[in-house]
Each structure stands twice: as structure tokens, then as C-alpha cells.
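tool=predict chain=A
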Amino acid sequence: MKKLMLTGLFVLLGAFAVYAQNLPSVRIVNNTGHQIFFIFVSPADDEFWGDDLLGKEDTLESNQTFTYQLPQPLNMVSVYDIMLIDEEENSYIKTAITLTNNARIVFTFDDLDDD
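tool=predict ok
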């Protein structure tokens, strides 16, 4: 019985590893000219942004790239909203972006949210 349970656990872990390897990633490029303190990525149909991807200790300098692995395969969710917030609490937003694996999303000062 223990051997069967252990085999089942290995199969489950293997399936999860394959699933995780198939998750797409996106590269977010900061060309805003400002240091970014927060990055939020959420499916376009979500009501809330979710957690900050940079964490409390990290920032994204101007001309740097941040790579994020999406939490779901693109056949489940492919349209996302992305928001960056700089040191002056200005937000830069791109909405309803259809992402592909290894997509490169460049934020510039033109993406500044004027609202």
C-alpha cells in the first residue's frame, strides 16, 4: 500500500512539474525613465490586481527587464492587464494585452495613466 501511494505521489509531482514547465512567461521592460516599485499582472477580466510581483525589497530600474511566469497556460487565460507604479506613485498601465509565450512588453512614459 505504501509503495502504491509513493508511486502515485511521484506521478502527481511529475505531472505538476510538466505543468509548471509549460507555463508561459512574459518580459516586462521598464523604459519609463523612472524606478518602478510595484508591478501587477492580472487577467483582463479580473476585478482586482492581486499581489505586487516585485515584493517589498525589489525595484525595477529604468531600462531593466522583469520576467514573470504566468500562473496559467495561455489556452486558459491569454489576455492580461499590466500596471507598473513608480517612485512618485505614478501608474503606467496596459490593458487587454493578448500575451504569447516570451512576450516582451515595453512600458514607456507614454503609458502613464493620466486619470
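Confidence is low (pLDDT under 50) at residues 13-20. The two ends are 62 Å apart (CA to CA).
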